[in-house]
Amino acid sequence: MTTSLLLVDIQNDYFPGGKMELVNPLDAAQKAYMLLQCFREHGGYHVHIQHVALKPNATFFISGDRGTDIHDSVAHFEGEPLVQKHYPNSFRETNLLELLKRWGVERVVIAGMMTHMCVDATARAAADFGFQVIVAEDACATRDLKYGETLIPAEHVHKAFLAALKSYGQVMKSEEVIVQLAALQAKT
Question: Who wins on pLDDT, 180 or 99?
């Protein structure tokens, strides 16, 4: 079964000094890098997805700003596919679906930021398009949210969304993803 890694919005604005710093983005990026290296070393398909805001009042991912750049931890190499998006769902008004279909992809592994927004929207859309979905839980990061006067810690936001995403596919640690994909590859 052909698999592609989707690296969703691992961009400078989410890291220390960025305009929308997340909780523990470096830890998540290290795990995403581990997955990326696995796909690179074994000739696997992988796509960097970059969010650029369209709204004139956007506070981050502003077009032309270094905050939109892919973070060095998962550096985009020349020749690697890069899909630019403007909405949380990485498939919406992009060529991502066309690209995955052209490669014959049936399964996607998703890593990226933010768990509660773009990772969630992309995973659900991928499942709706018929892809088998694996979310690499430790290769994703999010932030604290507020609802009314209640502060919801990033860890709770992250786990709540991952729990819901289990209805759309598998949720597992990066090392488990690599082991599972290696085992499946060995069978073919």
Answer: 99
